[in-house]
Amino acid sequence: MMTIRAIVLAGIGVFGMAVASVQAETITKTVQQGNVKAELSYERDRKPDEFPQVQNLRLKIQRSNQTVFDKAPGSEEYDRPLLDWNAEDQDSFLVRDLNGDQEPEVILDFFTGGAHCCTYSLIYHYDAKQQQYVESRAFWGNLGYQLQDLEGDGKVEFMSANDSFAYAFTSYAASAFPIQIWRFENGKMIDVTRTYPKLIHSHAYRLWQAYQEVKGNDADVRGILAAYLADKYLLGQQEDGWKRLRQVYQESDREEYFANLRKFLKESGYGD
Q1: Where does the secretion signal sit in this chain (predicted)?
Q2: CB-CB contact of 91 with 99 (8 Å)
């Protein structure tokens, strides 16, 4: 899945062509896995010199050719399907078995608009007792996600990062984000990041390399160091992480930055 930065760049070209296009059109997208088929339809109103609006969203889900779900997704009024913003992103609407139970879920991604924010997913899983699909929401902020089967066991993980670090210590452009890995189980998103220490270690290493590359160039490194330390907390190596930060960060706001960082990490669930 593309990041918001990439989406915005890609969207510039899409928008440029859309202004001269027809004023209104109906879009229908269909995806399927096994006996589960999902159809998304909506109207796109294109007016000169205005951002194209999406309305009359409808999602239909069929099981073995029988319609089980047929209603508007639980999106906000001005949000748009991510696939409408970036038509090349085919993974933003799909049917896929997320937890290996042979019961495919439907995933539909939305974009709220704006330069940096936000994306979220609506996930529909079939409740056999209720004999209907139940909607869940996963919020990604600026960053999006990628689907990967990390264990090769048919259970799919959502590879992402912690968007709460955006603007926490510096500008968005200078912010960095600790790794997050999620799994969809029993209708809920479960944070399973700590069960993948090798991936955390690799991510922390890349953050430290990024710091090494920009240090000494008048770059604001507070965002990178904050994300790096959060990864170290996930590994249970916070003492080593703090030792490194105290060695390398000697700016005039050093003590204030460290105090704010410690408080932020605690409030964000990383530790002491």
Answers
A1: 1-20
A2: no
226 pLDDT higher than 80: yes
Considering only residues 75 and 243, tell me which one the structure prediction assigns the higher pLDDT: 243
Tokens 């994306």, residue located = 119
Contact call for residues 122 and 91 (beta carbons, < 8 A): no
- Of 148, 142, 175, nearest to 264 by C-alpha is 175
User: What three-state secondary structure class fits 190?
Assistant: strand
How far apart CA 252 and CA 110 sit, in angstroms, is: 42
φ/ψ bin of 65: left (φ > 0), alpha (ψ from -120 to 50), beta (otherwise)? left
Residue 219: other Cβ atoms inside 10 A = 15
What are the strands, taking DSSP E only, across the chain?
24-33, 36-45, 53-63, 66-71, 80-81, 93-96, 105-111, 119-127, 132-141, 146-148, 157-161, 179-185, 188-191
Among candidate residues 58, 24, 54, the one with its CA nearest the CA of residue 41: 58
Among 62, 65, 141, 145, smallest CA distance to 98 is for 145
Cα–Cα distance, 106 to 81 (Å, whole number): 14
> Residue 124 forms beta bridges with which residues?
106, 135
Q: CB of 175 within 8 A of CB of 147?
A: no
Q: Is 134 helix (H, G, I), strand (E, B) or coil?
A: strand
Torsion of CA 39, 40, 42, 44, to 10 degrees: -120
pLDDT of residue 20 exceeding 50, the answer is: no
Task: Look at 35 and 52; give whichever has higher pLDDT.
Answer: 35
Q: Is the peptide bond before 118 cis (omega within 30 degrees of 0)?
A: yes
Distance in Å from the first CA to the final CA of the chain: 33
* Beta carbons of 149 and 137 less than 8 angstroms apart: no
Single pTM value for the model: 0.85
